[in-house]
Amino acid sequence: MKFTIDWLKEHLDTQKKDNELIEKLTDIGLEVESFENLSSGLDSFKVAKIINAEPHPNADRLRICDVDIGLDNTVKVVCGAPNAKKDLLTVYAGPGSIIPKNNIKLTISKIRGVTSYGMLCSESELNLSDESDGITELKTTKYSDKIGENFFKNKNEKVVDLSITPNRPDCLGVRGIARDLAAAGAGKLKNISNKNIKKNGSQKIKVSITKEKNQGCSVFGSCLITGVTNKESPKWLKEKIISLGQKPISAVVDITNYVMLDLNRPLHAYDADKIDKEIIVRNSKKSETFEALDNKEYKLGDDMCVISDKSGVLGLGGIIGGTRSGTEINTKNILLESAYFIPRSIRKTSKLLNIDTDAKFRFERGIDPQSIKLGLSKAAELISEICGGKISNFDIQQTDKHENNKIEFNISLFEKITGFKINDNEIIKILNDLGFEVSKKKLELDLKIPTWRPDITQPIDIVEEIVRIKGYENIKTLEPEKTKIKDTLNKQQKLFHFLQRSVASKGYFETVTWSFTDSKINKIFKENLKEIKIVNPISSDLDVLRNSIFTNLTFYLKKNLDRGFKDISLFEIGPIFKGSKPGEQLTVIGAIKSGKISRLNWNEKDRIVDVFDVKRDVIQTLVEAGYDRKSFFVRDKSPSYYHPGKSGSVYLDRDEIDPVAYFGEIHPNILKKLDIKTEGLVGFEIYLDYLRQNKIKLKDQKSNFEYSDYQKSERDFAFVVDKNFKAQDLIEIISSIDKNLIRSIKIFDIYEGENIPHDKKSIALNVTIQSSEKTLEDIDLEKINKLIISTVETKSGGKIRS
Amino acid sequence: MSDIKKIKDDYLNKLDSDLNIESVNQIKTELFGKNGKISNSFKTLGSMPNDERKKFASDLNSIKDELQNKILSKIQEIETKEINSKLENEKVDVTLPEREFNQGKIHPVSQVIDEISSIFSEIGFSVEEGPDIENEHYNFTALNTPDNHPARDMHDTFYLDNNKELLLRTHTSPVQVRTMLKGKPPFKIIAPGRTYRSDSDQTHSPMFHQVEGLHIDKDINMGHLKGCLNYFIKSFFEVDKIKMRFRPSHFPFTEPSAEVDIGYEIKDGKIVIGEGDKWLEILGCGMVHPNVLKNVKVNPDKYQGYAFGIGIDRLGMLKYGINDLRAFFETDYRWLNHFGFDPLDVPSNYRGLSR
C-alpha cells in the first residue's frame, strides 16, 4: 500500500514530523517497507545563467553557450534558440535528464562537431506552456540568486510503502491508516467533508441481485450520472495517481481509483449506454464467456459472481470489468457501481481464473459493506465536478443488512494475555478512536465492531487492538522459568545427533541438500520405492521427492569433482520418502567417498578407496552408537546401485529382518550414466528407523569386570575353503567352539592362487586362547587345536592347510 | 690389607679412564673372574686367624661393592654414550608433514540446530519433530488458516497432489498441532526442521530451516514470550546485551502477533548484533490463537501461551557471517570446509555454545 504524506494529511491533522509518523506506523503494526522520495526525474533541471554565447563555427543558427549551473566550472551547451544570449537566466537540463514533453533522454552529443553537455529548455519542452519559440526566460528578480538550484521545487512527495498484513483491509485506504495513527496519538482524524451533492431523479437502469446458493454479492449500490464529458484528469488528480506509481487514464477511471485508494472503496464505472436494459447480479453458468478489461477472454465456471445485462456477462463482480461496457473518453452517461462482494467467492473465482487485480485484492480481504453510499457520493461528486453531468438518486439493492458485529469483552483478559495493566478509560479511548462503539458494564465492555474491521471476531482480537495501539514496548520482559517437563531429546533424537557427529568424525563433510531431486537421477537409486512427484516443482530438474540420499550426494559429488577435487567424503543425514502421506519417510544417513587414500603422500603408498574403508566407517559408527560388534551380521545382499560383488548389508543381529545399513562400491554403470569421473566411489547408508533402541541404559549394561591373569596362547591356522565361503562364518564356527577359552580371532591373510585349487581360497587366522581358571598345559592347548581343526573341517567342508 | 687397597685404587683409576665395553668386561674378569684378584682375596679368608678375618672380610666386601658399582656405572655410561651416538645418526626431518588425518565437518545448519536446542534445553524446552510431508489440515486449517484465507498466499506451497491435500510443510508450525493433539498441557517444546516454499532467489531457497517454539500453560503471557526470546537471542549471539524490538504483526495462528527485530550495525564490513541503530527482522511470534487451541482440544479458557518461529539458516548466517543463503545447500566442498564445524565441537551449556 503506497501513499504520500500529503495525502495522509488530508485525513490526519498532525504536527508530527515525517519520521515520527513512519516510526509510529511500524509501532502499531503497519510495517513500513520503504519511505522514499518519489523519483520525479526532475532533479536534473537547474536554474542556469548563460555567461557567454558565441556563434557555432559550422552552423549559422546555432550558438555555443557557456552556462553557469552553480558549479565551479561552466558547461558548454549548443543551443539553437534565437533568444539564447549572454546573461539570460534559463532552465538547464543535464545529460541523463528526461525531457517531460517527449520523454527523450539527453546524452552528451556532438552537434556539428561541437560537444554539447545537456540542453537549455523551452517552456513547451518542460510542459509549462505551449511556448516553443525560444528557451525559457526566467525573471532576474526572482531567480538571480538561485543559479544551480533545482528548477522544479520538490513538493513533499515522499512515498510511504506499507506492507499491509491480510487481516487489515481497512488500511488498504489512506483513511484507514490515518485512523490507526490517530488512535495511537499521532494526530486527529479529520471528518470527511460531506458536501451535499445534488441528486435528481431515480436511477433508471434496473438492478437486481439473484438470490441463490453460493451467492457472491450481497449489496449492489449504483447511481447514474448523465451528460458527462470524460476527459484527462486535472493536475492534482493526475499527480495523486502518479505519486503512487500508477498511470492516469481518464477522469472517470482516475476518480474511481482515487476513491479506492483513499477510502478502500472499490468502484466500477460502466458506460450506461452500453448496458442492455438492466443489471442482473447473479452466479455464472458453466461455459459463459466474456472479454475482460485486460483484453483476455475468460471462460467461466459455475457459481462465479457476474454482473450481467440482457445480453450476457458484463464483468466479474469485484474482480474485473468487461470491455463491452467500459467507459471511454467519449462516454456520455455513466453507471457507477459500489457493491459488497463476499471474500470467499472472490477468492475462489480469482484462483480458478488466475486473475489478480486491485479490486480482487481488496474484496477478498473484506471491504466495508457500509461504505457503499460513501463511495458513490465521493465519486459522483468528483465526476460531476470535473466532467459535469447530473447525478441520479442512489439505488441500493441488498440481500444482507451487514449489521455491526458485537463482542462482549472482559477487561481482565487484557492483563491475562499481555501481562500488564492499563486503566479502563484508556482502553475505551483506544477502542473509540479505532471506531468501536463502547458501552461499559461492570467488568465488561459491550463493543460494536466497525464494519471495516472484518478481522475482529472475538475478545482476543480486542486484546491485540489495545496492546498494538498502546505499544508492545509496554510488555514486560519476564525471566524465563526453567522448569523442565520432559527430557530435551528422546532416544531417537539422541541417536540422530550422535550418529551425525560420529560419521563426521571419520572424515566426512556433512552437507544438507534439498529433499527433492531430479527424477532422472532418482530413478537410478529409487529401487522399488514409489516416485513422488511435486505438482508444482520449482524447476523440472527438482521434480520429485528423493527416494534415496544418494541422488543428491552423487549429483553434488560430480559438481565437486568437476571443480577439480578428487578425494571427497560427503554425508547427509535427513529424510527420504517412501510415499506421499505424512509420516511416509525414513531418516537415513548417506555417505560417499571418492578417489584415493594417501594421495601424493611422502610416506604412505596411495590406494583407491574400497569397500572395506566404508565397511570400517559404517561398523565403527554403529559401535560408537552403542551396538555390539560381536552380534553384527553381514550379508552380501545390497540394493542394485551397489557393485554386486563388492557390497553388503549390516544386521544388528543374525535374526533381524531389516538391515540397518548398506555399504559398498557404487555400481560402475551408475558412474558411467552420471558421467562421474573418479578412480573409485564407495558409500554407505544407515537407516535410523531400523536401529532398535537399547532398552537398558548404559549404566545398567555394564557387566562385572572380570579378567584373567593366566597365560594366554596364540595359535595360527590356515584353512582352505570354498571361494564363496564367508570369513564371517568361519569366525562364528571357531568362536562358538568354546566361548570361555577362545578370546579373539584375527584373520591375517586371504590367499588365492598357486598351490590352491582355483575354486578355493585359503584363510589364515590367529586365535588367542586363554582360560580364566588356570594356565593351560600343552595337552589342553593341543586338545583345543584339534577341536578347532576338526570342527572347522566338518562345518565348513574345508581343510586345514598343511 | 694394603694389597687389596692397592687393587681397589688401581682399578678405580683404570675405570676412570676412557674405556670400551670390552675393556670393562676384561677388568671385571680380572677382578671377579675365577682367578680374579678379588675372588682370590676371598679365598685367603679361610686361612686367616679369626680376629683378623672379620676385619678383612668386612673391608674386602666393601671394596668389592665399590668396584662392582663402579663397573656397573661405567657400563651404563658407555651404553648411554653408544645409544646417543647411534641416535645422532637416526635424525629425521620432523618438519616433514605428519601422517594424514581426514578432518570431517558438521554443516552450519546442524551446528546451529544443536546450539538452539542447547539454549532451549537450559530453560526447560524439549525437542519435537514432525513429518516433512503434511496435509493441508495440519499445515493450514488447524492453524486457523482456512482455505479461503488470503494468508495462504503468503506461503508459496509445494503440492504433492492436484487436490492440494498433500504438501511439503511451509513452516514448522504443524508440529505444534501434532504435539498438542497427542499430549496434554502443559507443553514446552521446540521443533527444528526442514521447511519448503516454492520461492528461489538470492534470499530465498525452496528449502530452508525453521525452529518452532511453543509454551502452553495456565498463565503464560506475552511477558514470558518476551523474556524467553530475549534470553534466547542473547544466548545465541553470545552477547550480554541485545537490542530487541517487538512489532505488531499478523499470523493467523497467533493473536496478538509480533515480529521481532534485533539491533545491529555494520563494523568493518561485518555485521555486529546487539548494537547500532539498524533493525533486522529475525522471527515471528505471538500468543497461540484460541481457535488453534480449540482445534487441538485444549481449552483456551484454561490454557494459554505463546509460539514462535525462527529461521535457522538466517540465524546461522548472522552469527557466522555467511552471506548467501543458497550456498547452504549447494555442497561446495570448499564452502563446507570453510564454514563447517569440528564434530567434537558439540554445543552445550556447560562447555559453551561455540569455541
Largest sheet of chain A: 7 strands, mixed
Cα end-to-end separation of chain A: 93 Å
> How many helical elements of chain B?
11
Q: Please give the domain count of chain B.
A: 2
Proportion of helical residues of chain A: 25-40%
CATH second-level architecture of the largest domain in chain B: 2-Layer Sandwich
What is the CA-based Rg of chain A, rounded? 42 Å
Record the strand order, biggest sheet of chain A.
27-31-32-38-37-36-35
Which pair has the most extensive contact?
Answer: A-B, 96 and 90 residues
Which CATH C-level class of the largest domain in chain A is it?
Answer: Alpha Beta
| Extended strand count of chain B | 10
Oligomer: heterodimer
Using only CA atoms, what is the Rg of chain B? Answer: 41 Å
Structural class of chain B: alpha+beta
Give the CATH superfamily of the largest domain in chain A: Bira Bifunctional Protein, Domain 2
Layout of SSEs?
The complex is a heterodimer of chains A (802) and B (355).
Chain A lengths: L1 E3 H7 E2 L4 H10 L3 E7 L7 E12 L2 E10 L6 E5 L9 E5 L15 E3 L2 E3 L2 E2 L19 H4 L14 E6 L10 H10 L4 E2 L16 E4 L7 E10 L8 H9 L7 H13 L4 E4 L6 E6 L5 E3 L5 E3 L5 E5 L2 E5 L17 E8 L1 H11 L4 H6 L8 H16 L2 E2 L3 E4 L7 E5 L1 H7 L5 H10 L3 E4 L3 E5 L10 H12 L20 H14 L4 E2 L5 E2 L1 H7 L6 E2 L10 E2 L4 H13 L6 E9 L7 E10 L1 E2 L9 E2 L2 H14 L8 E3 L6 E10 L9 E6 L1 H6 L7 E7 L10 H4 L11 E10 L4 H9 L6 E10 L8 E10 L8 H19 L2 E2 L2
Parallel strand pairs in A: 13-16, 27-31
Antiparallel strand pairs in A: 1-11, 2-12, 3-11, 4-5, 4-7, 5-6, 7-10, 8-9, 14-21, 14-22, 14-23, 15-21, 16-19, 17-18, 19-20, 24-26, 25-26, 28-30, 29-30, 31-32, 32-38, 33-34, 35-36, 36-37, 37-38, 39-41, 39-42, 40-41
Chain B lengths: L1 H15 L4 H12 L4 H8 L5 H39 L19 H15 L3 E2 L5 E3 H4 L26 E3 L5 H9 L4 E10 L10 E11 L4 H16 L6 E8 L2 E14 L2 E4 L4 E11 L1 H6 L8 E8 H9 L12 H7 L16
Helix pairs in contact in B: 1-4, 2-4, 5-10
